[in-house]
Design goal:
- The protein is α/β, with parallel strands linked by helices.
- It is built from 9 helices and 21 strands.
- Strands 1, 2, 9, 10, 11, 12, 13, 20 and 21 form a 9-stranded mixed beta sheet that branches.
- A hairpin with a 4-residue loop joins strand 10 and strand 11.
Length: about 375
């Protein structure tokens, strides 16, 4: 029998949330090894999003998304300042395209206040035109706390903290399966140098693969696992100058926040994501989807020229509620009590606002496995 490597804590998944969890546990004094199946960290969901720091407007009050987004935003802005991570608090406008949508903005303002986001306000069409002359609408909700971030620099800072506190990151190391022991977990890890690991704690932060990891562990009660759904979102980039200096969002759609205008730190504009419910994971962007993008964008930017959009990239959202349930759903963060095993914690459905909430999610995990 091959030798078994005994470890204190293994985090599975090297996206922004897995890195945040490993960082939090390492700072708390745990011996941490993070396993990432891909050749680099953050190469899947964490590099295929809008890179937005969300304020916390939309999520039901009392949900994990609401609580951890607001707490995570405060921590993230402070961390960015402390570590000189490129970011900008550019603000956001949620635009009502017609009179009927104004009622939604009023409801959203109440939701934001209930969630502890107290800096939002409603503006009329005149003030909207003054703030963003190229954007049209009946009214808008202003969110000054929304921003943008260089997610790759954020992940580099998390990695530096992990390593500074004695943690290790091992790439090209897919978890092939495992077995629940009485007070530990045996993992079979593939890659160039396959190894058997016995860990006193395993945290499954594998994003899209979280369900597959749990299903591969013999002895785990699968009834604890939530539903699994995938929502694909495509992005299109804009040739030419961005029409606004703030992020521009429409009224949300089921499963997402609608095709919105977001900016990178260089000021380049891109639009997305749309929502397409899929059974399998693929990242192709069908150029024909641009037709719906033009129609959606012209509701708030009527001067968008034909031919100005080019396919950019797509991302996949791991969801615990499908389209038949409205496409919403909360984060599912299970400590040992919820997973049914003293050495296992699992995170499911960590989609937007997962990047914003990453430090608060990590703090929640540390509390659950203490």
């Amino acid at each position: 029998m091959s030798e078994v490597l005994e470890l204190d804590c293994v985090v599975v998944g090297g996206g922004v949330v897995g890195l945040a969890v490993a960082r939090e546990l390492a700072i708390a004094g745990r011996e941490v090894v993070l396993l990432e199946a891909e050749p680099m960290t953050g190469s899947i969901t964490s590099s295929r999003n809008s890179e937005v720091i969300h304020a916390g407007l939309y999520y039901p009050t009392g949900s994990l998304k609401a609580e951890l987004c607001v707490a995570g935003r405060h921590r993230l802005y402070g961390y960015c300042d402390e570590r000189h991570i490129p970011h900008r608090r550019c603000g956001k406008l949620v635009v009502a395209s017609n009179e009927a949508e104004v009622a939604y903005l009023e409801k959203l303002l109440k939701q934001a206040k209930a969630n502890g986001v107290d800096d939002c306000r409603l503006i009329d069409a005149t003030e909207l035109a003054r703030l963003e002359p190229r954007i049209r609408g009946f009214a808008a909700l202003v969110s000054p706390s929304t921003g943008i971030i260089d997610s790759h620099r954020l992940m580099e800072a998390y990695i530096a903290d992990i390593e500074a506190h004695g943690g290790a990151i091992v790439l090209n190391s897919p978890v092939l399966g495992g077995e629940l022991l009485s007070d530990a977990i045996r993992l079979s890890v593939g890659g160039r140098d396959p190894v058997e690991i016995e860990a006193r704690l395993v945290v499954n932060a594998a994003g899209l693969s979280a369900w597959a990891i749990s299903e591969s562990l013999s002895g785990l009660d699968r009834r604890a696992m939530p539903e699994r759904h995938y929502a694909k979102g495509c992005y299109f980039s804009l040739s030419g100058r961005a029409p606004a200096g703030r992020l521009i969002y429409p009224v949300p759609e089921p499963g997402g926040l609608g095709v919105h205008l977001t900016l990178d730190l260089a000021g380049q504009a891109r639009f997305g994501p749309d929502v397409e419910w899929v059974e399998t994971i693929d990242y192709d962007v069908d150029p024909r989807r641009a037709d719906k993008f033009y129609a959606a964008i012209r509701r708030y930017w009527p001067d968008l020229a034909d031919g100005a959009l080019q396919p950019a990239y797509s991302g996949m959202r791991p969801k615990v509620v499908g389209p038949e349930g409205g496409g919403g759903g909360d984060f599912v963060i299970q400590g040992p009590e919820a997973t049914g095993h003293p050495a296992y914690a699992a995170l499911y459905g960590i989609e937007s606002p997962g990047l914003t909430a990453s430090m608060a999610i990590a703090e929640r995990v540390r509390y659950l496995v203490r």
